[in-house]
Write a sequence for this structure.
């Protein structure tokens, strides 16, 4: 769980957000997991209810009716994938 729970992201408390630290037993930041992280984040970014998807591969957010790249979020999401829905 994010160290900012639930103050910085109330969606955790609402059951609308998750942080993923490992995929297939390997940390998200592990070099052998790079392709798995990419595939998962690409799938999350296509989810019709996606609000935020921040991680090592991409950082995207839906604001209003538009999608924004948020490269400034990369530094704080190297070790996990944050995903939230509307």
């Amino acid at each position: 769980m994010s160290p900012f729970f639930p103050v910085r992201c109330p969606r955790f408390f609402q059951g609308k957000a998750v942080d993923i630290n490992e995929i297939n037993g390997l940390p998200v930041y592990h070099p052998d997991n790079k392709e798995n992280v990419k595939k998962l984040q690409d799938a999350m970014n296509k989810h019709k209810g996606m609000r935020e998807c921040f991680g090592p591969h991409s950082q995207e957010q839906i604001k209003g009716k538009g999608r924004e790249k948020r490269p400034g979020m990369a530094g704080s999401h190297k070790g996990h994938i944050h995903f939230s829905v509307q």
